[in-house]
Amino acid sequence: MVMRYLFWISIVAWWIMDFCVLVLRKNIYSKVLDKRSKFIVIGLILIGVFLAIVPEDFRAVWRTREFGPFQIFGTFIVMLGVTIRLLAIISLGEYFSGDIVVGPDKKLVQRGLYKKIRHPSYTGEIVAFLGLGIVFQHIPSSIFISVFPFLAFLYRAIIEEKKLHGEFGDEFIEYKKRTRMFI
């Protein structure tokens, strides 16, 4: 029972964190490189969530299933993903934005998680959605809740890298050589 509560607390914390940084936080940057991809990402995630929760057999199983080993493991994966995303947001600090932007001082952040991973924030989201898929333990729903967000963040990372390459040129190429896109 405690793990079920921990699962829901993790989910609510994740939603609140994303709402705060993506909706409530104002974009203070003068140079927005891309806004459109954010809406494509949101759309793909919503499609994945919708397709995951629509099957009646999923909802019937979800309401009656005991919170067993898969759900416990999946909850820890969700918590890991949310933690990775939070650390990425903290690492970027004032540079974090829901849009793809460049700050007025035009600095390529390479500290914290960004030392090793180019997109730790997206990595955290992907890991969290994978954890949801494990918690769901329903093959079609698990695939939808994992694959659609993965494709969304892969798309966003590709768009972001093209924009950052255009802004930072060789500095970004060198950074790309030293880091991985995701984990």
Automatic annotation (TrEMBL):
It is found in: Membrane. InterPro entries: ICMT_MeTrfase. Its main location: membrane. It comes from Fervidobacterium changbaicum. PROSITE patterns: S5A_REDUCTASE. The chain crosses the membrane at residues 6-24, 36-54, 74-96, 142-159. The lineage of its organism: Bacteria, Thermotogati, Thermotogota, Thermotogae, Thermotogales. Keywords: Membrane, Transmembrane, Transmembrane helix. It is a multi-pass membrane protein. This is Isoprenylcysteine carboxylmethyltransferase family protein. It holds the Pfam family ICMT.
